[in-house]
Specification:
The structure is a single chain. It contains five helices and five strands. The longest helix has 13 residues, at 19-31. Strands 2-1-3-4-5 form a five-stranded parallel beta sheet, sandwiched between helices. The protein is globular. Helix 3 links the parallel strand 3 (57-61) and strand 4. The protein is of the alpha/beta class.
């Protein structure tokens, strides 16, 4: 687990360039007991993972302003960041599904209207 002595909650990284989505997901995660870090770009995500240390799970939007979410996860994996990841996107193509599956990355489709995202996060954390 990637928690610290000062805060033993599970650490969740949320990456989305939409401030409303970022705020809503952060609030939902906080109410479920997660410690939340937020990023709005792939570059910010890479820097935060390098400086902040490991996260227990990552939620990454597929359409970021500077890079695709799946490419961001591939880069993170290449850097040794192996935390479970959930890619959030609308209508993922079969090619994206295959690419994500090859890395063991889950996909949860937008709109995020029910408990599907946090159900998947908890499933991944139980597996870890």
């Amino acid at each position: 687990m990637a928690s610290t002595l000062a805060d033993d909650r599970r650490a969740l990284l949320i990456v989305d360039d939409d401030p409303d989505v970022l705020r809503a997901l952060g609030f939902m995660a906080d109410t479920r007991g997660f410690r939340v870090d937020r990023c709005t770009t792939a570059e910010e995500t890479l820097a935060k993972c390098a400086s902040r240390g490991p996260f227990d799970c990552m939620i990454i939007d597929e359409k970021l302003p500077d890079r695709r979410g799946v490419e961001t996860i591939e880069t993170l994996r290449g850097l040794g960041v192996m935390a479970p990841a959930v890619l959030i996107t609308t209508a993922p193509s079969p090619a994206l599904r295959r690419r994500a599956a090859a890395m063991g990355v889950s996909i949860v489709e937008k709109p995020l209207l029910d408990e599907a995202l946090f159900t998947e996060i908890l499933r991944l954390l139980r597996r870890d």
